[in-house]
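I would like you to sit down with the pair of lines that follows and say whether C-alpha cells and residues agree.
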Amino acid sequence: MVRSSVLGYPRIGADREWKKALEAFWAGKLEESEFQLQLQEIRLNHLRKQQEKGIDLIPVNDFSYYDHILDTAAMFGIIPQRFAFEGGAVPLSVYYGVARGTKDAAASEMTKWFNTNYHYIVPELSGASPVITENKPLAAYREAKEKLGIQGKPVIVGPFTFLKLSKGYSASEFDTWLHKLLPLYVQILQELAAEGVEWVQIDEPILVTALSDTDIERLKTIYATFANSVPNLNIVLQTYFEAVDRYADIISLPVKGIGLDFVHGLNGNLQSLKAFGFPADKVLGAGVIDGRGIWKASLREKLALLEELTQHVSAEQLLIQTSCSLLHVPVTTARETKLAPELQGALAYADEKLDELALITKAVSSGTAGIAADLDECDRALQDLQQSAARNRSDVQAAVAELRVQQPERSRPFAERHAAQQAKWQLPLFPTTTIGSFPQSAEVRKARQLWRKGEWSHDHYAAFIREQIDLWIKLQEEIGLDVLVHGEFERTDMVEFFGEKLAGFAFTQNGWVQSYGSRCVKPPVIYGDVAFTGEMTVEETKYAQTLTSRPVKGMLTGPITIMNWSFVRDDVAREQIAYQLAYALRQEVEALEQAGIGMIQVDEPAVREGLPLKEEEQAGYLEWAVKAFRIATCTVQETTQIHTHMCYCEFHDMIDSIEAMDADVISIETSRSHGELIHSFELNTYKLGIGLGVYDIHSPRVPGVEEMTSMIERALRVLDPKLFWINPDCGLKTRGLEETVASLRNMVEATHIARATHAACV
C-alpha cells in the first residue's frame, strides 16, 4: 500500500500564535505553565490538521520552542559552560539563554540552515559531557498518541549531521565525539522501540554535500550500530535540499528506508536511481512535493514522475513525501484575499501541500479517475498564471536576452576610476561613512503606519521623512563623517521597499515564515517579469544632497539579494530572474546619477546565501551573480563611485568573485570574525577599495576608541591604506539614537588617530 508522509510542519501557526506566545513569555506576560499549555495546543492543532488531511506518517518532535538543532543539543545536555548548567532537564531560562543571550552570557552563534533562509543555533561542544536530559522524541510520540490517537513518526537530527554542524572541536576529535553520542542515540531509539514506535525519521541533510571515504565509514558505523541495537525499528534515513553524491553507499546502509529529494535534487537522484537501482528490501521516501517553494505543484507532472520511479521500485516501496520540512513555507493560503486571481490560484502553502500529497497518494493507489476534477483545476490554475500578462513582458524578455550575451564592464579599469574619483571628491585618508540606514524610532514606524492606513496624506508623510533626513544629515556633519547617507526612513525592509516599486512582484497578507527564533519574515513574491516602473529612491536621496556639500550615497539593494530573500517563480531559471532585477536596478542607478548623485551603493549581503550546495555548481552561480551586479552598475561614468556591502562570509573562497564585481568600494561585516577575515587578506591580495566594519552594530554597547583603533590597525597590516575606508559593520536601523551617535563619534576619533599614524601614506 502506498503511503504519504510529511517531513515537518511550520511551527508559527496561521496567526503567528507561536511567535506571539514566545514573545509574551520572554516579556514576562505569560507564566511558564500557561506558556506550556499554549504551545501544546498549537502543537496538537498542527497534528490534527495532518490527521484530518489523511497523512499516513505524521511527524512528531518536529515542533520546537526555538530551533530543532538547539533542541538536539539540549536533549544531550550540550550547553555552553558560561550558562552554568548543572544537569537534569534543561530549564527554559537556560534554553532561551543559549539562543538569545543573558545579562551575563553571550548567545551561541546563529547561522544559515544549509541554503535556506532559516537560521539554527550552532552547538558548542567544547567542555561538554553529553548525557540524555530528556527523550524528547518519546515525549512527542506519547503526546500525539494519548491526545489524538496518532501513531506518530518521531523526527530526530542524525548524529553525523549534528556533529558536522557543531563547533568547539577539532577535526581529529570527530570520531571521539561520535563515540560519545552514539550510545545516547541508541538509548533514545531503544526507548522509542519499547514504546511501540513503528517508524523513525533520522534527518541527515549533510549527506547531500561532499562526503569523503572516511565519512562513509562513519555512516556505516552509525547505522550498523542502530540496526544491531534496534533491529525491529523502521528507520528512514532522510536527506533533502539536493541530491546525494554517494548514492550507492547511502542506499546500502542498514536502514528500512531512504528519503530523497525529487524536487531540488531531482536530476541527480533520478540519474542515480536509474544507474544503481534501489534495494528491494527498503522503502523509498520520494520527496515530490516542494517543501520550500510556494507554488502549486503540477499534479500530472508529479504523477508522471512517480510512475517513472515505479519502474525502479514497486508501488509498495513508495513513501510519497514532501521534499523537506514545510518549515520553509507559510501555513495556509486561505487568508490571502487580496492577490490577483491568477496568482492566488497558483499558490500552495503548507496546508495546500498536504492536500496535494493526499491527492497524488490516492491517485497512485487507486488511479486518477477519483481526482480528475482536481487535475483539471490544477492545470487551469497553472495555465492562467503562465499565460498572464505579468509573465509575458516581451520588452523585458528581449532586453534581458540581449544582456545575456554581453559582458558588462565599466568604461575604465579601477586604477583609472580611482584616480578620477579622488580628483573629484578630494576625500581624506581613510574616508568614513555608514552602511545606509539610521535608527528607525517608534515615531518613524508610527508615521509609516499612519500613511499606509491612509490617515496621513502622501505630502504629510513626505514632509515627515524630510524632517528625519534634515536631522540626520546635520548629525552626520557634526559627527564628522566624510560620506553621508539619507538614512532610509521611508523603508520598512531593504527588499520589500524595492519590490513594491517594481513590476512582477506581489505581497501577501499572511505569507509568514520563520527566519530564526520568533523572528518571522514575509518574503515578497516574484511571480512575473520584473520591470522598472519609475524612480524609487531619487526623491529622498536628491533632497538629502541639497542639504550638504559632502557626498550623499544613493542606496539600493542588489539583484541577487532581492532574489535570494524573495519567493521566486519556478518556471524560469534563477539566472534569468537575476538579470531582470539587474536590468531594472540599472535604470534606477542611471536615474540617481542623472540627478547628480555621484556615489551609489548597491548592497549584496545575500550573495553567499544562494551558493549551491554542490561544489561543481558554485562557480557557475558566482559567475552569473557577479554578472548581474555588473549589469546593474556598469553604465555609470568613471567618476561615479559604486559601493556595495556584504555581510560576513568565508571571504577566502569568494575573493576572486567579489573582486570581479568591480565595485569601487566594498564594505564587509567583520567585527565578530575580524581575525578570520584579516587572515584571508594575508593569503589573498585585494586591489579595490574596502571597508572592514570596525564595530558590531548588533549590540547596543558603545565600543571604545581604543577598540576600534586596534581593529583599524590590524586591517592596515594587510590592506592598502590608500584604498581603506572606515565604517560600522552594517546598517544602524535597529539601534537607538544615543548609542548610534556615541559609537560614530568614537569611530571618527579612531579614524583621526589612524590618519595621524599613517599620514605618510597621503
Notes: The chain has a mean pLDDT of 93. The first strand starts at residue 3 and ends at 5. The longest helix spans residues 174-195.
